[in-house]
Write a structure and sequence with these properties.
Chain lengths: ~300, ~300
């Protein structure tokens, strides 16, 4: 048999060897990354699901208590507060953040001088660490020594409590957050705007479209996919709001800046109620998953009807 | 002089478009003489806005050179009376800041090095080599982007605690050795990369690894630079995980260390601001040097 090697067998053998060598090199190249990324996400994810059904105190695995944690979190006023605060942050930040980002991107989307300088200025707050920025704004908005209150007083306005006032703290954080994320929105919108062919806008002008008409009927629809992306991204990001809270208010005053992730961190690593913390983390996960899927589905539908 | 009578219709040319272009050119030319030297009006919006964006950082630097009396005065001083290095002395001599800085450099450096190697290997494999399970693995990898770290952090802490990594720099380095985003970045780069060069190398008898090392990687330098910059910024700025994984001061990273400057009762703002300046400078340097690549990477990752 071995002596009657016809071409088909040779080809098949070569093919088999090639596939084998591909399997080996492929896994040798990708294996370490796959092993680390999947190992550090899916295993802890399943483990967290189990933990959420126990009364673990972080360092002992605890007892299985069924869905008691989930029953408790439905009645947890702190969790409701954290949820409301996180949503409020999204409501305060997202519409303004996206609109302002698009506005500045439109201003930058032309051949003007200094464009590199502007882009750098807008991106610097996005690149610096949220921890450093939290400390910086804790100082800027300090009720006693902060420059903002000094400014208010100089023009004859009353001094404010800012981060120490329960009715103002969350809004101040939303402003700071806007400042840190603004540049990212600009850069993403700018990239999308640069993809609009000049002919389209030119054609719109010839059809008699004014500046506003062009904005509403050409620019906004064209960047809609990017808007949806930024919306999803922004929501996921707001749902993970932690660094700024930790470095400024630590959830206070009176829990007025308690966010979901800050609450999870407190539950697991301050109060050592890890099982309950894992249950809250799962609520966070499913909420952001639903929001993401809904936004993507909405985006897809809109793009088809456009 | 424009007008319909001047422009004779030319067959095959869209006259409306032609006329619009001529009008546009004339409008541009009218902006001549002294008005040409005025700044365009967009700058009236953009310049103040961009200054507002960097003003807090200017204030940070100014404050770091003030004395605590200047800072605590009401109203506060705007300009430091003289360059006071007290804040920096407190940071560098009376705190563990030098350790924190070194720790952050080690962690970020290790993360960059590891991701450059592991992400490019994996991205290349997914883009070029057809191996068993490659499609499924790629989908699973991308799906991990939907899993927030807050969900996995509690078990990750327990695992790292059990294997004795907690409170070591290893605990900070291991999760950053590779990343789904990095793999995706390299994957989409290699997909748009011409195959011919590699095939030439294969014909010359090079192994896959040799082709990768000698031909592909040198040409992938732009993508590698982008990946390195993003990884460095992310690793340097991380607060959440180091805060959980590290408990002893000398193993802190800069971000965690900084937060300990906030006093329970009295905060030395010159010290805090000096600390934030020293913490922000490395990441800003990396950003300023690699800004173009950084922007390409964040916009490319979204479009691609």
């Amino acid at each position: 048999m071995a002596t009657t090697l016809d071409e088909a067998t040779i080809a098949r053998e070569a093919n088999r060897r090639m596939r084998r060598s591909n399997n080996i090199t492929g896994w040798a190249f990708a294996g370490p990354s796959v092993f680390i990324v999947l190992g550090l996400s899916f295993i802890p994810m399943i483990w967290a699901a189990y933990l959420s059904l126990t009364d673990s105190n972080l360092l002992s695995s605890g007892h299985f208590i069924g869905f008691a944690n989930y029953a408790a979190l439905a009645k947890d006023p702190m969790l409701r507060q954290a949820f409301t605060n996180t949503l409020l942050l999204a409501v305060m930040y997202l519409p303004v953040g996206l609109a302002a980002g698009l506005g500045v991107a439109i201003l930058l989307n032309r051949k003007i001088r200094l464009i590199g300088f502007y882009r750098t200025c807008f991106l610097v707050p996005f690149v610096a660490s949220a921890a450093a920025e939290g400390l910086l704004f804790g100082f800027i908005f300090d009720p006693d020594f902060g420059i903002v209150n000094a400014g208010l007083q100089a023009v004859g306005l009353p001094r404010q409590g800012f981060l120490q006032d329960p009715s103002e703290a969350l809004a101040v954080l939303a402003i700071v957050y806007f400042w840190t994320q603004f540049g990212f929105n600009i850069v993403i919108y700018l990239a999308a705007l640069q993809d609009i062919p000049e002919e389209v806008l030119e054609a719109a002008s010839i059809d008699g479209a004014g500046r506003w008409a062009k904005f509403w009927h050409v620019t906004v629809p064209t960047v809609r996919p990017v808007t949806i992306f930024l919306l999803v991204w922004g929501l996921i990001d707001v749902f993970q709001f932690f660094d700024l809270v930790y470095t400024t208010t630590r959830g206070g005053p009176l829990n007025s800046t308690l966010t979901l992730v800050y609450y999870i961190w407190e539950l697991a690593f301050n109060f050592f109620t890890a099982g309950y913390g894992a249950a809250v983390a799962y609520v966070l996960f499913f909420t952001s998953l639903i929001v993401t899927v809904a936004a993507l589905a909405y985006g897809r539908r809109r793009r088809i009807t456009l | 002089m424009t007008g319909e009578q001047v422009l004779r219709p030319v067959p095959g040319v869209d006259m409306a478009l032609h006329r619009a272009r001529i009008e546009e050119a004339e409008r541009r030319m009218r902006r001549s003489g002294w008005r040409r030297h005025l700044p365009q009006r967009w700058h009236l919006v953009l310049l103040p806005l961009s200054i507002i964006m960097v003003l807090p950082f200017v204030w940070m630097v100014l404050t770091s050179f003030m004395t605590d009396t200047e800072i605590n005065r009401i109203p506060p001083a705007i300009w430091p009376h003289h360059l006071n290095m007290g804040g920096y002395k407190l940071v560098l001599a009376s705190s563990d800041f030098p350790y924190w800085f070194l720790n952050s450099l080690i962690v970020s450096g290790a993360a960059v090095l590891a991701q450059l190697i592991l992400c490019s290997l994996a991205g290349y494999a997914f883009a070029r080599i057809q191996f068993r399970g490659s499609t499924v693995m790629l989908i699973l990898l991308l799906a991990t982007a939907l899993i927030p770290f807050q969900l996995t952090v509690i078990p990750t802490f327990v695992i790292f605690h059990d294997i004795g990594l907690i409170n070591t720099l290893g605990a900070l380095i291991v999760p950053q050795l590779t990343s789904a985003l990095g793999i995706y970045l390299m994957y989409s780069f290699f997909q748009s990369f011409p195959r011919e060069l590699e095939e030439a190398g294969r014909i010359d008898g090079c192994s896959r690894l040799q082709v990768f090392w000698k031909i592909v990687l040198p040409l992938a330098r732009p993508a590698l630079a982008a990946l390195g910059i993003i990884t460095f910024i992310y690793a340097w700025n991380d607060l959440f995980w180091p805060l959980i994984a590290i408990t002893s001061s000398r193993t802190f990273t800069v971000q965690v260390g900084l937060t300990t400057f906030q006093g329970e009762h009295v905060t030395h703002w010159s010290q805090v601001m000096a600390g934030t300046v020293l913490t922000t400078v490395p990441v800003l340097l990396v950003f300023l040097i690699g800004q173009r690549r950084f922007v390409q990477a964040i916009t490319g990752a979204i479009k691609g």
